[in-house]
């Protein structure tokens, strides 16, 4: 396995779209594919995988439950920093117990479940309570319905905001001085974190506490399914992304292209928004919400042991409301318009062949921001297709964890 720190400087081509006349056919294909979701069943039989101390966080009922998991070193006074772990889409922080065990050697480690994920999901929380009280196997196939309010990432950002503030408060209790705080964020969690930090422009005190962020396979691009599935789905995905990118936002293209792109966007975006919204309505969403396809697990990790864990993990949400999918796409487009303004120091890690969060999104981000801070660094897994770098086989996993610790320690030395 080769590791590389190069960043390609050539311009990534605009995601051009051909075959606009087939959009309605492609929409039909795309909406037909998830029909197997109507027979989707899912159960949990063992309690949620807890690690560390559990801290209950008070917040509004509309934002749902929020629990922090916290690990402290044996001598917590000697911890040099605090680390907040932010997981990706449809997974949960319970998976990160071994990761937390690694970082707790030197740092206080905190994690939490996103809105509608893990124990922040009412269906999953109730199932966990029932199992803890001695009840048998629990049906959790409807856990995805907690995504109903998610037309964008704002609920996830609010949970992150509360989790970060509580993390800082917990860290300050353990020390006489203000420890630096680092965020390690994966995939959709990286997009949530990046967009959140860009909204903190008027909160300098909070921004200063965050000394750096580690981006792991960040969702700065839309997914590109591989193989025959991609042959059918990618034209629609690219069309939708292209339309969102140009919708009411000219891209400095020549006038004929500008007019054409705006017309396509003005027609396509409302149609797709309406279709995805309708597919998320009660009565339709039960058979139009796609189940996570089997191919995804093949691109998450090269560890067969971890793949077996993923297949057996009932706490992962296996279905996704299309309203949420469309909202994520719009969030990616919005972030890319402003990403050159991102100023928090970062360590960016991504795989060249990752179809879940394709490399062009990370390359564009690095091109726009790499020079904005001297401590920004990029680690590229050349010719690798895997998405969850913290769950790779050894020795790659340990090497990456060591690199992350070294980068954080360098940041702490630079800010003394």
Unreliable spans: 1-38
Tally of alpha and pi helices: 14
Report the count of strand segments: 11
Give the CATH architecture: 3-Layer(aba) Sandwich
The shape, in one word, is: globular
| Main beta sheet | 9 strands, mixed
Gap between N and C termini? 36 Å
Sequence of secondary-structure elements: EHEEEEHEHEHEHHEHHHHHHEHEH
Radius of gyration: 21 Å
CATH fold-level label: Rossmann fold
User: Structural class per helix/strand content?
Assistant: alpha/beta
InterPro entries: AB_hydrolase_fold, Hydrolase_4, MAG_DAG_Lipase
GO molecular function, one term: hydrolase activity
Domain Serine aminopeptidase S33: 79-383
Organism: Nitrosomonas ureae
Descriptive report:
It is a single chain. The protein has helices spanning 23-32, 97-103, 122-132, 154-173, 188-198, 204-209, 227-246, 255-278, 285-288, 295-298, 304-312, 322-338, 359-369, 396-414; strands spanning 2-4, 43-44, 53-57, 66-71, 82-86, 108-112, 138-139, 181-186, 210-216, 346-351, 377-382. The longest helix has 24 residues, at 255-278. It is globular and about 65 Å long. Helix 1 (23-32) packs across helix 7 (227-246), helix 7 (227-246) crosses helix 12 (322-338) and helix 8 runs antiparallel to helix 12 (322-338). The protein starts with a strand and ends with a helix. It is an alpha/beta fold. It has one domain (43-226, 279-414): Rossmann fold (3-Layer(aba) Sandwich). The chain has a 9-stranded mixed sheet, sandwiched between helices. A two-stranded antiparallel sheet has the order 2-7.
């Amino acid at each position: 396995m080769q590791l590389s720190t190069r960043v390609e400087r050539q311009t990534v081509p605009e995601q051009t779209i051909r075959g606009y006349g087939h959009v309605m056919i492609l929409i039909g294909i795309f909406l037909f594919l998830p029909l197997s979701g109507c027979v989707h069943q899912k159960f949990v039989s063992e309690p949620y995988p807890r690690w560390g101390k559990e801290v209950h966080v008070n917040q509004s009922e509309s934002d749902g439950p929020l629990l922090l998991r916290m690990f402290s070193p044996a001598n917590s006074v000697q911890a040099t920093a605090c680390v907040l772990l932010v997981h990706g889409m449809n997974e949960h922080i319970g998976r990160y117990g071994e990761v937390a065990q690694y970082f707790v050697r030197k740092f206080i480690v905190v994690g939490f479940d996103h809105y509608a994920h893990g124990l922040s999901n009412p269906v999953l929380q109730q199932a966990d309570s029932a199992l803890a009280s001695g009840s048998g196997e629990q049906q959790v196939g409807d856990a995805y319905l907690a995504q109903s309010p998610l037309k964008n990432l704002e609920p996830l950002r609010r949970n992150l905001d509360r989790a970060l503030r509580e993390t800082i408060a917990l860290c300050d209790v353990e020390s006489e001085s203000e420890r630096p705080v680092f965020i390690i964020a994966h995939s959709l969690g990286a997009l949530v974190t990046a967009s959140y930090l860009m909204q903190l422009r008027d909160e300098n005190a909070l921004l200063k506490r965050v000394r750096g962020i580690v981006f792991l396979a960040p969702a700065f691009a839309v997914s590109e399914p591989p193989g025959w599935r991609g042959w059918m789905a990618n034209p629609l995905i690219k069309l939708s992304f292209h339309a969102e990118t140009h919708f009411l936002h000219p891209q400095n293209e020549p006038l004929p292209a500008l007019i054409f792109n705006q017309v396509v966007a003005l027609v396509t975006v409302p149609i797709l928004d309406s279709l995805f919204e309708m597919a998320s309505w009660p009565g339709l969403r039960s058979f139009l919400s796609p189940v996570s396809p089997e191919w995804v697990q093949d691109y998450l990790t090269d560890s067969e042991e971890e793949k077996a864990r993923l297949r057996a993990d009932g706490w992962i949400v296996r279905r996704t409301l299309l309203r949420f999918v469309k909202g994520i796409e719009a969030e990616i487009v919005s972030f890319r318009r402003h990403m050159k303004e991102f100023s928090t120091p970062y360590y960016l890690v991504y795989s060249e062949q990752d179809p879940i969060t394709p490399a062009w999104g990370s390359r564009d981000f690095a091109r726009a921001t790499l020079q904005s801070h001297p401590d920004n660094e990029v680690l590229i897994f050349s010719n690798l297709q895997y998405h969850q770098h913290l769950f790779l086989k050894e020795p790659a996993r340990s090497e990456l964890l060591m690199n992350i610790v070294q980068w954080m320690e360098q940041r702490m030395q630079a800010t003394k």
